[in-house]
DNA sequence: GTGGTCTAGACCACC
DNA sequence: GTGGTCTAGACCACA
């Protein structure tokens, strides 16, 4: 696995695990690679893998059985969604807000456009149904 | 200049002109490169430059004196802003809204986070003033 | 034996007896130390031991043969369990419920987490069997 | 500050910050000690303080301004409550559930006792009002 | 064998 | 100066 420089490695590892889950490579209850094994495989420090697993556990994507290893939780899938949401709010939203002030667009304006967007979607749905 | 494949070249040229304006390389009233000269310089078809200039003229960033050339309008700077805003609303906003529904985030939530974001900015400003 | 200040001494003595039973130090039908002997051994007032034995007798963990002494009842083991349960419900549960309301956690939420907890236990068991 | 061995140091540091907040020693918007300063003061590795601050940031108790430092968020107080809830679910709940199975008490039984507990509370309230 | 914590020390980007 | 990431290596508890 190749890492890029734009994002911390431990987040890229967490992402990689999420991709495996979304791709259904692993199922709920499956044991995932041990911290040390994955560290050797990815050629990084075990601490770095640890941080990735820590994140995933806090987001209830995986859970731990002491002395045994990490396992996919039952609701790993929605957990991944929740995690993606957190990342979106922390990384993309600030950039989005900066752009708003740069272009002198108020949040009120965004709200209006959002409602228009939703309406157009709903119309599309209704036409399909008809 | 290098063009990328993700966006039409004529839009990239229009963007390049906007960058010149935002960077204050050209001033209101200045004559900008002729369609043919710029086409030679950028190694593209004159029609492509033409489409870019047309777009800029529609947005009142530049205007044309028949037989003489294109000139920066007096309010080129605010014009560029308006243009950027239009592009933003047509291209980025729909993607943004789609992502919101994908991650199950309401516009209300975005509004709250925007206010938080503004507060943290203001705090930074106030500390500077003190 | 050291007593702590947080709980009445007679309850701590009753607890100590229960520990002996749960640890299988004594068997059903065995005669346990006399009130006076235990009082001397633990360096407490015989009345205090008496109160402990009374409590244990109420919970049918021990029974009394007048003039002879106290004996472990046949179902001392389940009796201790029942006793522990009563104590748990009277002492720990109210604190637990208060904490729930303090942290704004609903009983429904606890139920869900309990089911998750049971699932993870079962998974561990199944793996052992395999 | 003295640390005990029963809990990781970084959690004790996070707790210490929470206590400061609950005690109103620090107010929303206040800058808290820098990672390095606190590390020197508490005689621990900066990484350890970093982990504590990381936790607090994820729980939206504090936020970061790049190159400046960490600050108390506007809703630090509710954030602390949310954090306490997480800790309760991760640490105390498992012990509670183990005790339930040890004493052979079903979750259904707990639910009933909870309702009784709530009723007794409400009656107390009503009597006060009358 | 598993994960969990901590230290020491390095390097980076941002302000 | 600030935080953020990573490595190397140590020690611990648990299974």
Task: Tell me briefly what this model is.
4 copies of one chain form a homotetramer. Chain A is 65% helix and 6% strand.
Please describe what this structure looks like:
With 130 residues, chain A is mainly α. Chain A has a domain at 9-77: Winged helix-like DNA-binding domain superfamily/Winged helix DNA-binding domain (Arc Repressor Mutant, subunit A). Helices cover 65% and strands 6% of the residues of chain A. Chain A has a two-stranded antiparallel sheet. In chain A, a hairpin with a 3-residue loop joins strand 1 and strand 2 (69-72). Chain A starts with 8 loop residues before the first helix and ends with a helix. The mean pLDDT of chain A is 89. Chains in contact: A-B, A-C, B-D, C-D. Chain A binds a DNA duplex (15 and 15 nucleotides) through residues 8-10, 34-36, 44-48, 50-51, 53-54, 64-70.
The CATH H-level superfamily of one domain in chain A is: Winged helix-like DNA-binding domain superfamily/Winged helix DNA-binding domain
Named CATH architecture of one domain in chain A: Orthogonal Bundle
CATH secondary-structure class of one domain in chain A: Mainly Alpha
Estimated radius of gyration of chain A = 20 Å
- How many helices of chain A? The count is 5
Helical percentage of chain A: 55-70%
N- and C-termini, Cα separation of chain A = 48 Å
Largest interface (CB within 8 Å) is between:
A-B, 23 and 23 residues
């Amino acid at each position: 696995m190749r890492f890029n420089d734009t994002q911390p490695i431990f987040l890229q590892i967490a992402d990689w695990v999420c991709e495996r889950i979304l791709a259904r490579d692993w199922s709920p209850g499956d044991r995932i690679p041990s911290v040390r094994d994955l560290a050797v495989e990815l050629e990084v420090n075990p601490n770095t893998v640890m941080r990735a697993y820590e994140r995933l556990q806090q987001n209830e994507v995986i859970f731990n059985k002491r002395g045994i290893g990490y396992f996919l939780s039952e609701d790993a899938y929605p957990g991944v969604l929740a995690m993606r949401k957190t990342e979106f709010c922390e990384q993309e939203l600030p950039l989005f807000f900066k752009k708003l002030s740069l272009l002198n667009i108020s949040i009120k304006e965004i709200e209006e456009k959002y409602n228009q967007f939703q309406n157009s979607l709903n119309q599309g749905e209704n036409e399909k149904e008809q």
